[in-house]
């Protein structure tokens, strides 16, 4: 069996962390074959730092490289749609960073392009691929908690100093950047079921993007979810699943967890150490998502059972509805 040959698009912060995470996987399974940036200088620097053989100064050159198995899209949210379509139309498999795109219309365009070109596509909700979350899903599948009645997920991280978090033109706001993790957690627990109702309240920055949001959702059979997310303050960043016969607490950071409390019994899942400093928390855990993609490609799957495209579409539809209720509108909404 051959190594999976990755092409990275975007030489920014998350691409750096992804490259570091790759080094924790066997080289005979995963190789980064090329990096593309809008700037050739940045691509070359990145390639040197991470020992990547090929550097491109235009994304189109990566799209034309026939020796790439999958493109990892690590550019800003606002670029996912356009750049995603570039690779999908070139017949490339794509792992696209979260949020998948700016709204559900854009996400549906990406999904349609993947279907049309018969290629693999996945939203990079890396959380789903963590061993701790595999254990959560296993426990839920065997109904270890009885009937789940309430799911709570919090994510707050002070990042008002980061331009892409606060500027509307860069796709800012808590919802798209980190709220997406809380909502995907709820959908994971409720198995991709559409909520019966969504009630969101939010406060916005002067730029018009959301600073802090709370969301209450009701699901069938008297089940509920409560989410809070913020780019102004730190929150506990944990998630709790409460059932009639037990509970699971995913300790913070719930989006890349290493500790589970199942009925107060603690289990730890140790992450490998990074070979270079990381930009984000627990990023060597990106290895699980990379390996999930490899397994999907080896099986010839066009989407991941861990993060199916239907979940991504529902996730963005829920985010569209939340934005409608709290009054966040992006220019992409009227395109
Ligand atoms: N999974 C995770 O834990 C995680 C963590 C952080 C971020 N993310 C996601 O990853 C994506 C990138 O985040 P990041 O923090 O890595 O961002 P970043 O470093 O600020 O930017 C990433 C890349 O986006 C491109 N870019 C930046 N500004 C642009 C602009 N004004 N117009 C067009 N392209 C621009 C650049 O690509 P070039 O190199 O080609 O110029 C840049 O290298 C986001 O969608 C974010 O949600 C995921």
From TrEMBL:
<dbReference type="InterPro" id="IPR000683">
    <property type="entry name" value="Gfo/Idh/MocA-like_OxRdtase_N"/>
</dbReference>
<dbReference type="GO" id="GO:0000166">
    <property type="term" value="F:nucleotide binding"/>
</dbReference>
<dbReference type="GO" id="GO:0047115">
    <property type="term" value="F:trans-1,2-dihydrobenzene-1,2-diol dehydrogenase activity"/>
</dbReference>
<dbReference type="Pfam" id="PF01408">
    <property type="entry name" value="GFO_IDH_MocA"/>
</dbReference>
<feature type="domain" description="Gfo/Idh/MocA-like oxidoreductase N-terminal">
    <location>
        <begin position="5"/>
        <end position="122"/>
    </location>
</feature>
<dbReference type="InterPro" id="IPR055170">
    <property type="entry name" value="GFO_IDH_MocA-like_dom"/>
</dbReference>
<dbReference type="InterPro" id="IPR050984">
    <property type="entry name" value="Gfo/Idh/MocA_domain"/>
</dbReference>
<dbReference type="Pfam" id="PF22725">
    <property type="entry name" value="GFO_IDH_MocA_C3"/>
</dbReference>
<dbReference type="GO" id="GO:0047837">
    <property type="term" value="F:D-xylose 1-dehydrogenase (NADP+) activity"/>
</dbReference>
<protein>
    <recommendedName>
        <fullName>Trans-1,2-dihydrobenzene-1,2-diol dehydrogenase</fullName>
        <ecNumber>1.1.1.179</ecNumber>
        <ecNumber>1.3.1.20</ecNumber>
    </recommendedName>
</protein>
<dbReference type="InterPro" id="IPR036291">
    <property type="entry name" value="NAD(P)-bd_dom_sf"/>
</dbReference>
<comment type="similarity">
    <text>Belongs to the Gfo/Idh/MocA family.</text>
</comment>
<feature type="domain" description="GFO/IDH/MocA-like oxidoreductase">
    <location>
        <begin position="134"/>
        <end position="248"/>
    </location>
</feature>
<keyword id="KW-0560">Oxidoreductase</keyword>
């Amino acid at each position: 069996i051959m190594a999976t040959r990755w092409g990275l698009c975007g030489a920014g912060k998350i691409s750096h962390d992804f490259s570091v995470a790759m080094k924790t996987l066997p080289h005979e399974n995963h190789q980064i074959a090329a990096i593309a940036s809008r700037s050739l200088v940045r691509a070359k620097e990145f390639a040197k730092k991470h020992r990547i053989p090929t550097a491109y100064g235009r994304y189109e050159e990566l799209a034309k490289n026939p020796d790439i198995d999958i493109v990892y899209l690590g550019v800003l949210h606002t670029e996912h749609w356009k750049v995603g379509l570039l690779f999908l139309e070139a017949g490339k498999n794509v792992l696209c960073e979260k949020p998948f795109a700016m709204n559900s219309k854009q996400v549906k365009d990406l999904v349609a392009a993947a279907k049309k070109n018969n290629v693999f596509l996945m939203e990079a909700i890396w959380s789903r691929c963590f061993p701790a979350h595999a254990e959560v899903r296993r426990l839920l599948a065997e109904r270890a908690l009885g009937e789940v009645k309430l799911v709570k997920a919090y994510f707050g991280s002070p990042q008002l100093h980061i331009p892409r978090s606060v500027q509307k033109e860069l796709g800012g706001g808590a919802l798209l950047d980190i709220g997406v993790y809380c909502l995907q957690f709820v959908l994971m627990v409720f198995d991709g079921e559409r909520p019966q109702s969504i009630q969101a309240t939010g406060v916005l920055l002067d730029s018009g993007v959301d600073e802090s949001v709370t969301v209450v959702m009701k699901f069938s059979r008297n089940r509920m979810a409560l989410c809070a997310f913020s780019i102004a303050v730190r929150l506990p960043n944990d998630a709790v699943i409460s059932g009639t016969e037990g509970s699971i607490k995913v300790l913070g950071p719930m989006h890349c967890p290493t500790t589970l409390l199942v009925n107060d019994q603690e289990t730890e899942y140790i992450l490998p150490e990074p070979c270079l400093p990381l930009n984000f928390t627990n990023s060597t855990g990106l290895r699980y998502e990379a390996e999930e993609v490899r397994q999907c490609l080896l099986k010839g799957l066009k989407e991941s059972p861990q993060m199916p495209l239907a979940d991504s579409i529902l996730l963005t539809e829920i985010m569209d509805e939340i934005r409608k209720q709290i009054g966040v509108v992006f220019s992409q909404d009227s395109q």
